[in-house]
Structures are given as C-alpha cells and as structure tokens.
Amino acid sequence: MTFANEILAWYERNKRDLPWRTTTNPYNIWLSEIMLQQTRVSQGLPYYQKFVENFPAVEDLAEASEEKVLKLWQGLGYYSRARNLHATAKMVAYEYDGQFPDTYKELLALKGVGDYTASAIASICFGRPEPVVDGNVYRVLSRYFGVDIPINSTEGVKYFKQLAREVMHLERIRDYNQGIMEFGAMQCVPQSPNCQVCPLSSSCKALKEGTVGSLPVKLKKTKVKTLYFNYLVPISKGGLTILEQRTDNGIWRNLWQFPLLESKKELELKELKVQLEASEHFSKALNVSRFDPMSIIHKLSHRHIHTVFWIIELNDISNGGIPFEKVEQYPVPVLIDEFLKRLKNSYFWPLNDSRL
C-alpha cells in the first residue's frame, strides 16, 4: 500500500469527530484553519463554536465591531489573526458577494491567508489538488522520508512543499490532506510517538535509522527578549478604574489594558512610588500594594514578559474612569484577563467603600 493510501486508511479508522469536518463550507473551514494556527484543537474548539454561534455566516462577521471580534478571540493569542480574520470577512462579504474564491492563487490574496490555509481551503472545500504543509505534515514527512533539511529554512519550505505534492492522493485530496494533518497530530506526535502501532513503521526511514527524536530539524530561534511590565490598577472609593487602549502596531494592538509602566528591571515598591509621585493620576495614591508576591512570566514567541500588577488605591478618579465591573466587557490580553480572575478571589474583592 502506498504512503497516501496508508494515511487514508488510518484516517478512516481514527479521525476525530470535529464540527468543521461535517461541512465543506469555506467559511467554516477558513475559520477553523485560522483559529488552529499554532493552537491545539482542544483549545481552539470552544472559540470556533463561539464564533459560529455569534457569526453564523461571513457577512455576520464582516458586520461585527472589531471590539466584539477581539473580545470573543480573547485568550486565543496571536491577535493579528483576529484582525486579519475580520478584514478578510469584510473583503469576502463586500467584494466577493459573500463567496470565497475557489482557487489557491485567489485565496492566497486574502489577508491573513498564507500557503497552508489557501491549500487547505482549496482542497477541502473545492477539491483542488493542493498539498497542505503545516507543522504536523512537516513532522510526518521528515520522519517517514528521513529528511533533515531544516523545515524553517528557505530550502526546507520549498523541498517539503514539493515532496508533499509528489506523495499526495489526487483523487481523494480532501480526505488525504485532513488525514496527514490528523496523523501528525495524533500518531506521529512531537514527543515519544508510539511507533510500535504506527501503520507506516515498516517503511519509516527515521524509525529504521533511529532518528525519530531528532526530526524534523529547525534552525535556531530568534533570541528571546526579556521585558518588565508594571500594570497600575487604580481602584477608587467609588469603584472606578482606568483602562487604556493600545494603539501601537504590536500583537495587542487595539486591546485594552490598565496603565502600563515599563521598566528595565523588576521594580521594588519604593522605586515604583518615586515614579508615581510625578504621575497625573497616581500622585495622590492612598495606598500602593503589589498584588502577586512573585512576578508573572508571560511567554510569547520572542518575548518573555515579567509582569507585576500594582493595586493603586485612590480617593477618586476624575477623568476617564469606568466602573470596575464593566472591565470584563472590554477585550484585553489574556495576561490581564487572568489577573482579573485572581482579583475576584482576593482580599480586594468585592470593591466597595468599606474596603477602601
């Protein structure tokens, strides 16, 4: 049996029951593929279900506010995906009359749609003979064929795309592409795969040569930068606080946050107080206290953010204050969302005049 046929046979026996597998509607397939980029199925599934419930069709997503899209996306990370998702929904709804293009080349022109997503939509929705190459496929192909070319090199990207094209099943491209991705996610997993029950074990070059654990090969990652964030969480006697919207071009653009003070190292309380004395909002703080005893380290692909939340107790907030109970209505980075959950189980909650 050929490689492709083995994959198809395995997929028929082992495929998971996932909602986007019951349809070939390009809106649903596109939504799932964007959400599952760098995200496990178990994590992405609830978000997919929320989006489909709130936006049943691409026109519904196009007409939604960016704030609502970002709020529903909150916690999934890589927020540029959500912004691109929204932009593409508008493009499809208003420029393509609600119909997704059906060719790889046209799909590639949509914002946020790269080679992998365009190939997935073209093959799964429209039966186009386009091979998909994601992290799972890289792993399966590199191990089975014993290829040690770095998958994140220019040479590797071209090589594996061509290899994927050569071995794909043309007549059953829809099932084959889903099958090889599923095979990598469930059988040929990154760590300690159970090769003894693998249907490809007898012809897997990596298993034969003892290189399963070292494939696929990746070039060294970019050096990780360490940042120090001090979030200033104002709480007034009237239960007001302050939120600010990020307007930079970073990953959290347009999300909301408490006033942020960046520093070159972790600040001590007395160092923070010195800086607050020159602040418009916080110079008359009644009390300043550190919320978490240890800094929270939030790890992104190229940044490790050491974060401390400081509770700033105030008599009042004169300009720009919002009721604290409304904070949950705003889209915020997951770092702040997790803080809010801890706050509700802390000494500071509920917020009321007797506490302050």
Automatic annotation (TrEMBL):
Gene3D superfamilies: Helix-hairpin-Helix base-excision DNA repair enzymes (C-terminal), Hypothetical protein, domain 2, Nucleoside Triphosphate Pyrophosphohydrolase. One of its GO terms (biological process) is mismatch repair. The keyword Transmembrane does not apply. InterPro entries: A/G_AdeGlyc_MutY, DNA_glycosylase, HhH-GPD_domain, HhH_base_excis_C, HhH_motif, MIG/MutY, MutY_C, NUDIX_hydrolase-like_dom_sf. It catalyses: Hydrolyzes free adenine bases from 7,8-dihydro-8-oxoguanine:adenine mismatched double-stranded DNA, leaving an apurinic site. Its EC number is 3.2.2.31. Coiled coil: none annotated. GO terms for molecular function: 4 iron, 4 sulfur cluster binding; 8-oxo-7,8-dihydroguanine DNA N-glycosylase activity; adenine/guanine mispair binding; metal ion binding; oxidized purine DNA binding; purine-specific mismatch base pair DNA N-glycosylase activity. Binds 1 [4Fe-4S] cluster. Keywords: 4Fe-4S, DNA damage, DNA repair, Glycosidase, Hydrolase, Iron, Iron-sulfur, Metal-binding. Its cofactor is [4Fe-4S] cluster. Residues 35-186 form the HhH-GPD domain. Adenine glycosylase active on G-A mispairs. MutY also corrects error-prone DNA synthesis past GO lesions which are due to the oxidatively damaged form of guanine: 7,8-dihydro-8-oxoguanine (8-oxo-dGTP). NCBIfam families: mutY. Belongs to the Nth/MutY family. This is Adenine DNA glycosylase. It comes from Euzebyella marina. The gene is mutY.
